[in-house]
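Notebook entry, structure prediction.
Reason for the run: the old model in the group folder had no record of what sequence produced it. Starting over properly, with the input documented here first.
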Amino acid sequence: MPGAAGRSRLALVVLCALGAACATRLPPRPGGTSSPSATAVAQFTAATSHCAGLRTLTTELSLSGRAGDERLRGRVITGLASGGSARLEGLAPFGAPVFILAARQERATLLLPRDRRVLDDTPVADVIERLTGLKLGADDLLRALAACPGAGEAANGRQWSGGWAAVDTVDGRTVFLHQQSGAWQLAAVDGGGWRADYRLVQNGFAREVRLRSDDGRVDLVASLQQLEVNTPIDDAAFEVDIPPGTDAMTLDELRSVAPLRTP
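New structure, fully documented this time:
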């Protein structure tokens, strides 16, 4: 039977590794010189119209990818609500989840049920960074998975040949649009230290999201299954019961248990 360190590693290993969908070839970006576009902002507004009133997202994520030298794979039941609430459960082949992350207002508790260890009252972004290498808060993750980039109005519309356009958002991101079967769809978002690429888009929501860090050390693919949006989530889901006898751990200890990035 594996020891505590091995089980803890499994608790984190469930959160990534690149399978067949994640080849070394990078997703496309438009090339060459762009020209100003008077319609790109309107195209962006139409492509992200599904984001209006976004409150919750639930899905089962099939995750694969790498973080540093670690190649990982797994499934995570995910529930996110605007305002910094999250619940992530890493599924094991059988028995209890290998980890449970519950958060409110961007403060997380991470429970490793099989190790009986808990990390309490820690910024969500710090915990997700330890798990995946990507420093994303709960609301960041909600917007990334829902294909809802940026905040406020977009500007600086431009276009390329081949059905590509782009705009810049007020929070410093570049959003790329691509024309598919006559309709403009969100294709990619660059900024904030990471890059997102979207595939299999239906009604504005992608069924596959690829997230990469700018330095290339982290590369994750998330396949979204059983996706539901704006379905009420019980507020109790954003809490986790800590069993008696569970030992506290620190963020640094979480890093030492199973580091996902190259030391």
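Summary: Residues 4-17+34-257 form a domain with the outer membrane lipoprotein receptor (LolB), chain A fold (CATH 2.50.20.10).
The old model has been moved to the deprecated folder.
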